[in-house]
Amino acid sequence: MKLYSTKTLTGGALAAAVAVSFSAMTAQAAELRAWNIHPDGYPNTVALDKFAELVAAKTDGRVTVKNFHGGVLGSQPDAIEQVRIGALDVGNFNLGPIGPIAPEANVVSLPFIFKDMAHMHRVLDGEGGQKISDGMAAKGLMALAWYDSGARSFYNSVKPINTPEDVAGLKVRVMNNDLYSGMIEQLGGNPTPMAFSEVYQSLSTGVVDGAENNWPSYESTGHFEVAGYYSLSQHLIIPECVCINTDVFNAMSADDQAAVKAAAVESAELQRGLWAERAEASRAKVLESGVTFNEIADKAPFQDAMVPVYETYLAANPDLVPLVDLIKNTD
Ligand code: BDP
Q1: Low-confidence ranges of the chain (pLDDT < 50)
Q2: Which of 187, 254, 262, 314 could make a disulfide contact with 167, Cβ separation 3.0–4.6 Å?
Q3: Hey, which of 48, 213, 218, 271 would you mutate to test ligand 1's pocket, going by the most ligand atoms within 8 Å of its Cβ?
Q4: Ligand 1 atom 8: the closest Cα is on which residue?
Q5: In this structure, are residues 179 and 58 in contact, taking their beta carbons and an 8 Å threshold?
Q6: Measured between alpha carbons, how far is 54 from 12 in angstroms, rounded to an integer?
Q7: Model pTM?
Q8: Ligand 1 atom 2 nearest Cα
Q9: Which one is the CATH code of 152-237+289-329: 3.40.1410.10, 3.40.190.170, 3.60.21.10, 1.10.600.10?
Q10: Which CATH number fits domain 11-149+238-278: 3.30.2310.20, 3.40.190.170, 3.40.50.620, 1.25.40.10?
Q11: Within 6 Å (CB) of ligand 1, which residues are found?
């Protein structure tokens, strides 16, 4: 966070700051620097711009947000660390790469844990969501609101996937998280953790055969141009956060905290609507461009193959058994 005190300002800016400080004894404008991986027009990008607009309006300019879109500030795992240590303030993060840092947040990365998006929302809005955000806040990442990210399915440049045997031998890019590597291994494939920005090139040169993602990211990245088989496995439904450095948030006045939180929640409402529209539009666009699409008639063999992934995770995190049960028992 940049704090502009009168000491660092000169000329007109100094005059303006002094004018402000007459009306508010604690006059300091805080600029939050925010990381986003997605390009212009993507639902998250539009919603983050709305967040910035709302933060400035609701705090009368005491807090502002400067968004850095398109991943220009680096990869997601790096950006998560930067927000944790306070080198950046805010990020729209997928909970996938947060899982290795905050074990509570990792439960959402257990394959097939959510039945559908509505189930995921019910969990996040209840006790489960509270446990997850408490775990994240303790690690320096306070979740202000949750964004949608649809369901992730497999795609590759070789063949349609209908059974776990179809994954066997494929090199599949995954986000940085051992759960995803375990998931691909259990299906007989070769997991390749890799930054999002490197996937297009790796698919086109054959460094990897496939990856997995939702419709909007499959489309926005152009991955559909180089990996033309999309198979509807829907194995992961991972929420995303608008996360702020915990100390930065705690240092704000109660009014500003409430304003920033409300701005994030409002931006999330916008994002969810835009997400639903974009998921449809992206799906239509890639299918029109000739992508070979298949539903998977029987997902049970994929789900059965995940038993060891759950066992390994819960053996390493026995205290999270109740949270996993809570999610499974949420209707
Ligand atoms: C997208 C997420 C983004 C991830 C990306 C990935 O919105 O945060 O970085 O997937 O696969 O769906 O890395």
Answers
A1: 3-27
A2: 187
A3: 213
A4: 94
A5: no
A6: 26
A7: 0.92
A8: 94
A9: 3.40.190.170
A10: 3.40.190.170
A11: 37, 76, 94, 149, 175, 196, 213-214, 217, 240
